[in-house]
Amino acid sequence: MKHAIQRRSPDDLSQVDIREQWQITYWTQGLGTTQERLTRAIRENGPQIEQVRAWLAQNPPRRRPAQPLNGIKR
Q1: HSE-up of residue 7 (Cα within 13 Å, Cβ side)
Q2: Is the dihedral of CA 47, 48, 51, 53 positive or negative?
């Protein structure tokens, strides 16, 4: 009998591969980032996990400006 849910993990954990959706989900959750930032890190530095982690650390996500709640200006 097959398991209902089986977590996938890449065979090679030294390289970030994002050709399939499950791989994108694995790496974005594991690295705590978005697909856009992950893709940019790979494009700019290559797929080696050390390089991707270094890029993510050096390029923190931009903060969005605070927005008023329910249109109330304070």
Answers
A1: 6
A2: positive
Q: What is the pTM of this model?
A: 0.74
pLDDT of residue 62: 82
Q: Give the residue-averaged pLDDT of 58-68.
A: 79
Measure the CA–CA gap between 30 and 39, rounded to whole angstroms. Answer: 14
Largest pairwise CA distance in the chain: 60
Burial of 30 (0-12, 13-18, 19+ CB in 10 A): middle
If phi > 0 it is left, if psi is from -120 to 50 it is alpha, else beta; for residue 46 that is left
Within 10 Å of residue 5's Cβ, how many Cβ atoms?
Answer: 5
CA distance 12 to 46: 15
